[in-house]
Design a protein that fits this description.
Largest sheet: none
Low-confidence stretches: none
Oligomer: single chain
CATH topology: Arc Repressor Mutant, subunit A
Number of helices: 7
Order of helices and strands: HHHHHHH
Radius of gyration: 13 Å
CATH architecture: Orthogonal Bundle
Number of strands: 0
């Protein structure tokens, strides 16, 4: 499934932009740096670095995503989109590698990384 389709599912009525906003909100609103920090602190640093660097993006699972998020907040957001927490976190796990890869084309986190991912992704 393409990134845009996955983001659309995560955003519901708000579409792709809503999906990006929802992901940022779940990771504390810190933009790319918040997502990277949260995942790295929860044992996924190697995968995250593969997304930032060149080469093959290593996958993460929905279970990995759940370890990095507040379960109550995840459940609320999933319910708003008519999904289970597992289904919602699986979609996030599918979207994150490509999202991070797209906004780090130079192999490093941009200076504006705490800003809005929506503008960084140009979606």
């Amino acid at each position: 499934m393409a990134l845009q389709d996955t983001l659309g599912k995560l955003g519901g009525n708000q579409g792709q932009q809503g999906g990006i906003d929802n992901i940022q909100q779940l990771f504390g609103g810190g933009g790319l740096s918040g997502i990277v920090t949260s995942l790295s602190q929860n044992g996924m640093g190697q995968q995250v670095q593969s997304w930032i660097g060149s080469g093959q993006n290593q996958p993460i699972s929905g279970t990995d995503v759940q370890r990095a998020l507040d379960p109550g907040q995840l459940q609320q957001m999933a319910q708003r989109q008519g999904m289970s927490s597992d289904e919602y976190s699986n979609h996030i796990a599918q979207a994150l590698p490509e999202m991070v890869d797209r906004v780090t084309p130079e192999g490093m986190i941009p200076q504006q990384s705490s800003g809005n991912l929506r503008s960084m992704l140009n979606i």
